[in-house]
Amino acid sequence: MSSSGLAKLVTAKSPAPTQRFTGLPKYNFVGGHNAPEGIPVLELTAAANSVLQREGHLLALYNLSHGPLGYQPLREFVAGKLAGRGISCTSDDILITSGSTQGLNLVFSLFLEQGSTIVVEEFTYSSVLNRLRNQEVEIIGAPLTEHGIDIVRLEELLEAQHKKGRPVRMVYTIPTIQNPTGTIMPMESRERLVALARQYNFVIFEDECYADLIWAADGVPPSIYSMAPDVTVHIGSFSKTLGPALRVGYAIAEWSILSRIVALKNDAGSGAIDQMVVAEYFSHHFSNHLVRLTGILDEKLKVMSEAIDAAFGSGVSYHVPPGGIFLWLKFPDYIDVRKLTAPALAAGVAFNPGPEWSANGEAARSWMRLCFALPSKEIIAEGIRKLSEICYAEIGFPEISGNRVRSQSRLPESKMNGDDITAR
Questions:
Q1: What are phi and psi of 271, to 5 degrees?
Q2: Checking CA distances to 321, which of 20, 214, 228, 330 falls within 20 to 30 Å?
């Protein structure tokens, strides 16, 4: 049978085929990559040497003989780390996962079924939206403010769903360095969210993948899980604090729930060497590592902000995040950034168009997400200038670049008619 014949036998729900990988673009602002210069290669080499010499013989056993929750020293490290987020737990409350993506799959599978209703933040992690659509659940986007989820609007949504007889099963939130907006949910909103969860009987699914990467926020509130473990499931990851190629994450829940998540995790255990190396390295270097990495990221964000200001002026707007690896950039309403994707990529510039990160795609047509972690500072500055040139060539925006007026204008009618698109 030919491969084309086999293709006719795949299930109707199978995803569309992916394209062959042809390499990364020069100006790569997509994905959740980290800073290459932030990878402690020598220290990781030493950690791998040390732990493998000491415990390498345990690779002969599934889960290193430490049971289905994962490598015990790593779980002990996670428990200690999470004390800083206000979470009181032991290693027995923690499940090591193959990145946070596995945690997402497990928790969604446990609580959601076809037709279930989930509330997510209006702008949120694209992989979450894809997973939920594949599960055929009802997705409702809750509006966001500069302080994260709009708790008043959320309460209205919950009450409306209750009256319709379609109660919300789950609220998925990224409260600390939200992806893609970079906001932090204040304490009063977290407290109100917990109260709503108890009132309307839904689970809070808290994703804190970026909570360790903060450099400009004072008094970050404790995690929601620390406030209400009875209604919350919490996940985190080492993809952003160390490297996404190390597929190591974790999930935390009370045992009545965690035991069910463990039962769903039928992969015979997450990668053992990854767990061993992460535990060995971070047990000795976590604080110093974060200081160095967040310093690198902060500098790159400043370069990107300055480059955007120079190239686009007041025609675009953005919130300067206090941490993380993304900048969420707003273009004038008349611009659909999807029209820039192909010409930008042809010039080696890759970005994430906003609709991929929105529960209502069209609501984010004029937004784009830029990851500033991977490129060097020189490539960031050069790439933003090139993006500006492509934008002008395609749609005549911005009129001013680098404090110079463009030689001609090709702006659409809405701009020529005087619509205000420059508010910042």
A1: -50, 120
A2: 228
